[in-house]
Amino acid sequence: MKAKKEQAKGKAKEAMGRAVGNERVTAEGRADQMKGDARQAKEKVKDVLKD
């Protein structure tokens, strides 16, 4: 669940950065999305190892 929140937050931040033309905010949004992706992958691995 936390991974989905990070991904959504990142997408929103990236869109906002693009809308105002701020590359730094856009990059931060992409970074948040990548953190969410990594967290989601980690959670999937945990689930697989549980079975």
Shape, principal axes of CA atoms: elongated
Kindly report how far apart the N and C termini lie. Answer: 20 Å
Q: Could you say which structural class the secondary elements and strand pairing correspond to?
A: mainly alpha
**Series of H and E elements:** HH
In DSSP terms (H or I, runs of 4 or more residues), the helix count works out at: 2
Number of strands: 0
Radius of gyration: 13 Å
Low-confidence residue ranges: none
Question: Fraction of residues in helices?
Answer: over 70%
- β-strand amount: under 5%
Largest sheet: none
If you average the pLDDT, what whole number results? 94
Features:
51 residues; mainly alpha
Describe the model.
Helices cover 92% and strands 0% of the residues. It has helices spanning 2-20, 23-50. With 51 residues, the protein is mostly helical. The two termini are 20 Å apart. The longest helix has 28 residues, at 23-50. The radius of gyration is 13 Å and the shape is elongated. It contains 2 helices and no strands. The model has no long low-confidence stretch (mean pLDDT 94). Helix 1 packs antiparallel against helix 2 (23-50).
Brief characterization of the structure:
With 51 residues, the protein is an all-alpha fold. The chain contains 2 helices and no strands.
